[in-house]
Amino acid sequence: MKQIEEKIEKLRKEIHEHNYNYYVLNQPVISDLEFDNLLKELENLEADYPELITKDSPTQRVGSDLTKIFKPVEHKYPMLSLSNTYSEQELIDFDKRVKDKLKLRGDVEYTVELKIDGVSVSIIYENGIIKTAATRGDGTIGEEITANVKTIKSVPLKVRNFDSNNSPKLFEVRGEIFMKIEDFIKFNKSREKNGLKTFANPRNSTAGTLKLQDPKLVAERPLDIFVYYLLSDDLQLKTQYESLKTLQQFGFKVNPNFELCNSIQDVINYCGKWETKRETLDYEIDGVVIKVNSIEQQKLLGSIAKSPRWAVAFKFRAKQATTNIRSITWQVGRTGAITPVAELEPTFLAGSTISRATLHNFDEIKRKDIRERDKVIIEKGGDVIPKVVKVIEAERDKSSKPVKPPDVCPECGSKLFFPENEVAIYCINPECPAQIKGSIIHFASRGAMDIEGLGESLINQFVDLGFLKSYSDIYLLHKHREELIQIEGLGEKSVDKMLQSIEKSKSQPFSKLLFALGIRYVGEGAAKKIAAAIGEIETLISAERSEMENIPDIGPAASESITQFFKNPKNLKIVGDLKDAGLNFKSEEKKETSEKLKELTFVLTGTLSKPRDEIKDLIEANGGKVTSSVSKNTSFVLAGDSPGSKVDKAEKLGVKIIGEEEFLRMIK
After folding, report:
1. Which of 446, 487, 494, 526 has its CA 20 to 30 A from that of 598?
2. Which residues are marked as active site?
3. Does the pLDDT at position 64 exceed 50?
4. Which pTM was predicted?
């Protein structure tokens, strides 16, 4: 038996070493066939002697059980988000704040690393063996994804060079899980070939993969990782640079392009170099992370809200590409607004193939003098939404002519309306198919009635088949159950699940229903204020414009739009049908407000865990007030992820900066 144990341990060690050479160093020393034979030999031995299987065995990367739920995990050390900078001057300002806080006259030493465009993960190791892995979540609580992370070959199941006497017993590493560009393209082509929906970019693909509940499916996808942070109470590291070197010694895959910079000018040079060289990499980066190198100085600098004072991200400008406009088409939105779209020669940009780009409105076309067959520069705004930046006029066809706006709706042929003092053009035919589809899609969306299972493609299909003529018809779909089950791609289970969600949506609050009606200028926040102030639909229908305009943040445009909406007999009939279906057209009685925040003024900045209107409502419900700008009269700046310049101003004025946890304690 001892010989078997020794044989198994030798095979494991050998396979771990080959995994490290292949996935971390990218320097394989044996062929794939030889590696597969070693793994097969180990699998056979472990099958014969299952009592000898250990957690760190290479055969245990893929678990056999489906993950029914991702358990919440509290991070021992909060996973802070970074403030963003976009220019040299903002980096210089960051350096000045660091020096002022540290009371330094000389230069600060920084470690700079490429900012991988992926998904953050925290991995805990105990006695050198992987224990748990979790997503970032809200920075305090994440979701456990251990089984999925263990499938990533570049994540060591067992740490290299682990010394039980000198290595830390318990430590955490943080990294960014990503998908290489070439692997992503192949993966998307495979999905397209199998009739599956493709992903927009490598990051979305990575995030979607990590949410899968079957580790075997995760193992089939080409995920990779770069780690960048080492945390342990048992390990006394002096610098971030030393931390990265230690991670490499432990066998983790660290991005090789990190550098030590002796001044902020060196940092600026590094950022400029990689903004130019980013296209040479086989993975996506969207910037550079700059960290004060000294860990002692990091502790002295501390953090504000959810961002450290000792680190910052420098974000690159959006990626651009050159292509040709094949034609300009016009699409109809749910409000009847006609939007021009550039149909492009397909071109690869920032992780996906772009074939369309919004032109916003006709004024934008005139301002940039965009024409059909023009060669143009496009970019992804926020690396997400494609847009035309400019025309390359030197390559314009001499026969090209300026674009003219359409006279009639491209969907229904109705004459279009050109309102004064607006850039938008409208189709005002309420029976326009595109508007019907758009309004129903909006009505069923998550922010409105939140009807699960009734997505855009199904809505388009149901309108075309005549099941839906307005959003009130959603509540009559149960009458067509037998017909719906017969539709290709649907079945009894999916139809019944959708019908249950439709029934559940009847209990949505009046504010959600008011937003779902799709009245122009009545967004989520405005709908909440109107519902709270007016109380019920009958009162709103008969309300005077002046009464509506007395509600905070409800102006003439919104009040006029509401008045016109309820003057339309067709809209009144739809509202009546929704009432008959049992939907909620009355607000709950107002809860008594507290005075916990009485006479306190708040400014909100950064990305918060809840919509800003919801946070604002909480503040006002507790007697506080929210303003848009920081002044000496501001009581608190409530900062979320990636807070902006308001935090800098607050620090200069001595205004206290708090995070959401502290804010919630104030009103508890």
Report:
1. 526
2. 115
3. no
4. 0.65
